[in-house]
Amino acid sequence: MFIIGGVQKSSLIDFPHKIAAIVFTQGCNFSCGYCHNPELIDFSLKSHFGYNEFFEFLNTRKGKLDGVVLTGGEPTLQSSLRDFIIRIKELGFEVKLDTNGTNPSVLEKLISENLLDYIAMDIKAPWEKYALITRTEIATENLKKSVDLIMSSKVDYEFRTTVVKSQLSFEDFEKIGEQINGAKRYYLQKFVPSKILDKSLENEKTYSDEEFAVIREELRNYIKLVGVR
């Protein structure tokens, strides 16, 4: 199974230093209120872009694109993810995987087979607040395993958090710093209330630039590079 919820044919910002196509997989095991791809959460929806159609397109982009970003939804829920990536790699493209970290066994296999060139894992909150933010019961041990796998691998990576001010306090960011202590790269992503799952969050705000500066300084005690997007 590999259900493609959508394709963006070119991006300059989603794969660091690469020009990439983006594949949005259908289905997610989280229901974060601020999700800006709410149409991708439902597993029952059919593919909006054919499997073979995508590879026909990708064949025409040799020499024009550097790589492919697999995002979602949650790509690791797709049973044919490995085969999909192998086919992309066989065409000579690099692969970036966006993941929520709930499937460390899938992540471990992809890493061990050298199928990934970049990994971006979302850190939604301190572990104890995950159920609140994701609106799902979470096995935090799996999240911890994914963090350890990513940080101990030779694959380039980043961690990132979407920041709704009312959901995450200054103290929460210190806890996140402790969770990914020693990480290479971490990005704070400003919440933008555009197309989101929970309409009640439309009037919520993110932190000010000045507040983000304070948060960044605290996080630098734990993480080498901290950025704001």
Structural class designation: alpha/beta
Query: Helicity level, as a percent range?
Result: 25-40%
- Percent of residues in beta strands: 15-25%
Per CATH, the architecture is Alpha-Beta Barrel
> Uncertain segments of ≥5 residues (pLDDT<50)?
none
Provide structural commentary.
- The structure is a single chain.
- With 229 residues, the chain is α/β, with parallel strands linked by helices.
- The protein has one domain: Aldolase class I (TIM Barrel), CATH 3.20.20.70.
- Helix content is 29%, strand content 21%.
- Strands 1-2-3-4-5-6-7-8 form an 8-stranded mixed sheet.
- The longest helix is centred in the middle third of the chain and has 13 residues.
- The mean pLDDT is 94.
Helix/strand layout:
Blueprint: E1 4-11, E2 20-25, H1 51-59, E3 67-71, H2 81-90, E4 94-99, H3 104-112, E5 118-122, H4 130-134, H5 140-152, E6 156-163, H6 170-179, E7 185-190, H7 209-219, E8 225-228
Parallel strand pairs: 2-3, 3-4, 4-5, 5-6, 6-7, 7-8
Antiparallel strand pairs: 1-2
Helix pairs in contact: 3-5
